[in-house]
What we know:
It is a single chain. The strands form 4 sheets. Strands 3, 4, 5, 6, 7, 8 and 9 form a 7-stranded mixed sheet that branches. This protein has a 6-stranded mixed barrel with strand order 14-15-20-17-19-18. Helix 1 packs parallel to helix 9 and helix 16 crosses helix 23 (about 760-800). By secondary structure, the protein is an alpha+beta fold. The chain contains 25 helices and 22 strands.
Amino acid sequence: ARLLLTGLAVLVASFVVFATFLAYQMTTNTLVKALSKTLPATQLVVQPPAAATGNILSPTKDMLTRVQHVPGVAEAVGRRSGYVALSADGSGDGLGVSSDPGTGDQSWVKVVQGTYPKAPGEIAVTERTAERSGMPIGRTFTGWTYANEDNAKPVPHQLRVTAVVSVRNDSGRDAYTSDANITPLAASRSNLEEYERFDIIATPGTSPAELVPAITAALHAKPGDFDVLEAGAVREQEASDFGKQAAALFGVIGMFVAIAVVAAGLVSASTFRIVFAQRMRQLALLRAVGADRGSLVRALAAEGALTGIVAGLAGILVALGVGFAAPPIAHLFGLDVQSAGLSISTLIAAVLVLLEAVVITVVAVLSPAWRASRVSPLEALRSAATTAGGRTIGVFRGIAGALLALGAAGSAVLILSNLPGHNPKDYNPLPMLMAIVLSGTLAYAALMALGPVLLRPMLAVVGWPLRRLGPTGRLAVGGVGGAPKRAAAVAVVVALGVTLTAGVLVGSSSMQVLVARDIAMSAPADLELVTQEGGSAAPARGGLTDAKVAALQSRTELKNVTPYRRIEVSSDGVKGYTAVDLDVTKLPALSKVDTSSGRFGKLSPGEAIVSAFPAGQQGLTTGSRMTVTGPTGKTVDLTVVGTMPDSAPLHAEVLTSTTDLTALGAARVPSGVLADAAVAGEHGRTAAIAALRSSAADGQLNVLADERDDIQKGMTAVLAIALGLIGLTVLIAVVGVGTTTALSVVERTRESGLLRAVGLSKNGLRAMLTTEAGLYGLIGAVMGVVLGVPYAWLSVLSLGVDAPVTLPAGQLVLVMLLLAGLTALAGALPARRAARVSPVAALAADE
């Protein structure tokens, strides 16, 4: 039982480390399959060299024909793409068209409805494209292609939708057709017979590597003109950018894993200290029969190494089981997750994790072992069997803790005095963040050193309500305060997890406000219909009119329909500014926007809000006067009532009133219109798109909500990963509390029996020990919040991105209560075990 309890934290740490390695392997394998443009069945790829510069040659139709006739080639497919505009002038929506065989192992698409294109002019559209663009099977329309030559006239094509297909990534503007049919639609290419690449499958029994020389010869090209590569290398190259991002993410994960390992070491050291204290009579007897201090230390270190081997192997085996079970479980939920597999690197990682477990336990055992070996045989034999009641930390430890605290405070003050202001130029936040990490490390080291001293005043505050609950609460508070070193050791580990959690919550809350502000700037509504890009005071032909806007505002599929005008202006001799007259009060998304200075809201004539760009160029602040010149030379004097941290809505530099924009020469008809879908979800968004298209206005329809959803999903995923990683440290802290409580129960068997003998009930004893465990967590949570929130604030301010510093008080209180509950739960089982021992047996126990 002691072996299990002392090794439990190491087991969890070993599981975390090895599971992280397996997760990285699984993520890499999944990325290679999901993000590669090469199908699993493809064995060889012919393409231009990746590192080529200058005039890059493309494989041609003749080359494809020769490759298809190479002995050993079962199938060779050419890949190429084009773009088809849906209006003659190229404005508005369009379709990206790709070639695909439509069936077989070399096809990316799966036909959902209809028949895959065979005849010229036939295309298949994706499911989202069919729904959003109103292109059901049988729809006939005209598309236009453009050649690369200057002043080339658009070429019309009569196209008919014959199938709806499903694909891996559906942007809502995708179409597919056969290789023969795509030739006229690839008019933007300089040579209609050129391909982007060939994908090749070898005949059964033929090695792809054997085909490389024959395929190279069939190309009839100069050496170095084309690469003939095995598909595995191409897949890894295609996913390399995402793989680098995954490696960077797991680099951050590695930092948290290292913290979890440190936490496991702290828990193990505390556990060994209690275990050795319980065995003090045994150790003293060994000293009495001739064992010296060195031999005792070596024996206890060997015991720690054995614990590390057993716990490390158990953690590795559990991680392997979870790693191999994860892909099939993920498939049950429709997720395509690849297995990590077994390889030499996996074996090496397992050995390293086992060594790490041994090192943790040996390092953790040295200090308690040395302390246990210093007790003289006679003193130990005369004392009780345990020595858990140390209350002082010693002069040296106190001085070291005070110096560390002064260093942390001094460095924090230095960081605070050097924080960047608004919109710093050429600012690199990395040195400041590293200084914050250093200061935080000093603060945590000071907390470790001074923990037993800080515990008593914190216990007086945190335990005050418990003392009012009766004898059980007073006994629990007294039990924690009676062994401050033990309590502080466990609470400090909990504090580490809560410090990180508080930092992530504060940081993510601040960054979510920043991201929401940025999203509101670039995507102030779900949809945008742009009919005039700006730069001209003349209205666009076929554009919006007031009547069309009024018709849109009456549509039940839309809400918050808000027109705006956009023109290019100049100020103080600087040209190229964009000015808009958007009424920001009409769009709920813009309520999340804040300013660097001044106010953000509806503007009266003569008022303007400017972005950071003109504000920085011209030194504009709230109350400044600026003269703005429109495209026709007309000028207006404006007063700046607000400055933005970045850009104004719709990426404008100047936001002004309708009256002033008209005075600057803007056309009276709108340049575009913003609108939200009346009903949330994909179907509501599709209905809103159809309603906007019904306006009969020619222009570009942008689904801003798709971009917003992607960003929000990314933020949610990053936050979930960060909290999950920190949860590893919290898990080890909870394991430490449970272990400490379990060993404390064994250590205090006689004390428990005495309490039962004088009248404390089983439930009372169980409640007392469970409350003690909860106090460990609550004290650690308070320490973690007090330490984590200030450093999180410093981190947000040091980024230099004008993120507002927020305090998610509700979430922090929830974390504290949750930790107290988890740690109390961790102590519930040992408390139940202690309550089951009869008072007579407990009093007779030899501790």
